[in-house]
TrEMBL record:
Alphabetical UniProt keywords: ATP-binding, Cytoplasm, Nucleotide-binding, Nucleotidyltransferase, Transferase, tRNA processing
Family affiliation: Belongs to the SUA5 family.
Protein function: Required for the formation of a threonylcarbamoyl group on adenosine at position 37 (t(6)A37) in tRNAs that read codons beginning with adenine.
Name used for this protein in its record: Threonylcarbamoyl-AMP synthase
Enzyme Commission no: 2.7.7.87
Source species: Pseudochrobactrum asaccharolyticum
Record's GO cellular component terms: cytoplasm
Length: 320
């Protein structure tokens, strides 16, 4: 199993040395734990795809320590630069044209001429700064499965395939980053996430355009089936069937809730931020209860609810 270390400066230096040597480490961010490798090292990036069982056509996010570092690898338009200045560090990923001669390995971009980048909060930023190289870091879980929001969740899933896990405690956002692409002066939402679309729209003064779900993959998190537990998922339920576990939300219960095999409430008060923080952890815990199906009560689609419902719909999608 992987060695688990702390976020003390001496341990972060160890993590930087491991990553600098081309090895893999799971690192905490404000969104979810990331499975990190040097984004300029093809062998290291290939290790991410191997450890996760991730399809090579699914691109990765490159994590930067500063805006100046990002400038080395991508070309910013005016709107993207404003978004970065406003929301970085934080749960926003921007998809931008690769700068000519950028040292990012092609595996990171999955052959695209663009690169998804963000500036994360927390210990990962210190590690990137120490390396002075970006880290490719998708969620630290097996491909298509529930994202990890704790060091133990990473250990349980991928511990045998990693060199190191930095334990930064539970993630404070709990959902992957929101992904935005500016094209021909228009803003497109490629993936809803931990930054509500309404905040972005209010800042740029225009709506975010949504892509058809059949659109070609341009960024991580766009595969139809993703974030899935072993159990089937049944969404927007008004009643709980025999033998089901229940993922609840708010104060009102679906009929038959008292007969659920297990029940966890994302937020008894109906707070969407609290629900986002709990989503992946509660999905894992209900999955471990052994029910064949997890019934999910309705969650509003406003604010962070858009991202929560996105993850739930992908978790419930037909699986290959």
């Amino acid at each position: 199993m992987a060695q688990i270390i702390s976020t003390e400066p001496s341990d972060l230096q160890i993590a930087a040395e491991v990553l600098g040597a081309g090895k893999l480490a799971a690192l905490p961010t404000e969104t979810v734990y990331g499975l990190a490798a040097d984004a300029t090292n093809g062998s290291a990036v290939a290790g991410i795809f191997s450890a996760k069982g991730r399809p090579h056509f699914n691109p990765l996010i490159a994590h930067m320590a500063t805006l100046d570092m990002a400038e080395r690898y991508v070309v910013f338009d005016d709107i993207s630069r404003r978004l970065a200045a406003k929301f970085w560090p934080g749960p926003l990923t921007l998809v931008l044209p690769l700068r000519e001669g950028a040292a990012i390995h092609p595996l990171v971009t999955a052959g695209l001429t663009t690169l998804a980048i963000r500036m994360p909060r927390g210990p990962i930023a210190e590690i990137i700064a120490a390396l002075d190289r970006p880290l490719a870091a998708p969620s630290a879980n097996s491909s298509g499965r529930i994202s990890a929001t704790s060091a133990q969740a990473v250990q349980d899933d991928l511990g045998a395939k990693l060199d190191l896990i930095v334990d930064g405690g539970a993630c404070v956002v709990g959902l992957e980053s929101t992904i935005v692409k500016i094209e021909n002066g228009q803003a497109f939402l490629l993936r809803p996430g931990g930054l509500a679309a309404e905040e972005i729209e209010a800042f740029i003064g225009e709506p975010l355009h949504r892509l058809d779900q059949r659109a070609a993959i341009q960024a991580p998190g766009m595969m139809a089936s993703h974030y899935a537990p072993d159990a089937a998922m049944r969404l927007n339920v008004s009643e709980v069937r025999e033998g089901e576990a229940l993922l609840a939300f708010g104060a009102q219960r679906a009929s038959g809730a008292d007969k659920a095999v297990a029940m966890l409430n994302l937020s008894p008060s109906g707070d969407l931020h609290e629900a986002a923080v709990h989503l992946f952890d509660y999905m894992k815990r209900l999955d471990a209860a052994g029910a064949k199906t997890i019934a999910v009560e309705p969650v509003p689609h406003n604010g962070l609810g858009e991202a929560i419902n996105d993850r739930l719909s992908r978790a419930a999608a037909p699986r290959d």
